[in-house]
Amino acid sequence: TASVHYGDTVLAEGLEVELEENVGGPFTKSGPGTLMLMATNTWCGATIVKDGVLTAGTDGAIPPATRLVLDGGTIDLGGFDFSFAGISGSGGTVVGGTAKIAGEWVVDGAELATNRMMKSFTTVSGDVEIEPGSRMRITGFDELDGAKVYRILRMAQGTLSGVENLVCDLPHGWRLLRSASGLAISKVKSVTVIVR
Length: 196
What we know:
It is a single chain. This protein is mainly beta. Helix content is 3%, strand content 52%. The chain has 1 helix and 16 strands. The protein has one helix spanning 109-114, and strands at residues 2-6, 9-15, 27-29, 34-37, 47-49, 53-56, 66-76, 82-101, 104-108, 122-130, 135-139, 150-157, 160-161, 167-169, 174-179, 182-187. Strands 1, 2, 3, 4, 5, 6, 7, 8, 10, 12, 13, 15 and 16 form a 13-stranded mixed beta sheet that branches. The protein has a 3-stranded parallel beta sheet with strand order 9-11-14. A hairpin with a 2-residue loop joins β15 and β16. It is elongated and about 80 Å long.
């Protein structure tokens, strides 16, 4: 069951949308207005919020371990706990709870490289918590320039907690930079010490 809002105006309520269970591919919320999910859902792809607000109206409205892609929209967690397999996209807002990162978070190095001119790969306003046992895997390191720092996640507002829980498998010479304001990777610069 879904309801569609535009600002404070309810455009449609009680819409019944039938999808097959465990349907492949992402779920995308685009266009202005609010879409509220009022049932347990089972899509298997990413949860993509491009515009407007996607609101969880019940526990289970967003399937566990889906990747959250914020491309300009807002996800309202409705006070429920949801775990995501990473956050990506150009940025967006998390309200109504904490987006928890659990499991494997895959980051595409080619996407990082093409987004290099942006201040960050993903900018989030809201609360993000990294759960114990979470692992980040970055693919496509051959696309990255070792002289640059690549910001994976930047917290514009809100809190990032649990950064110490994140394990990241990086090639030799690369390191994960963690702070309460975000996550980045860079190549370790070698230092030459001359003793006279």
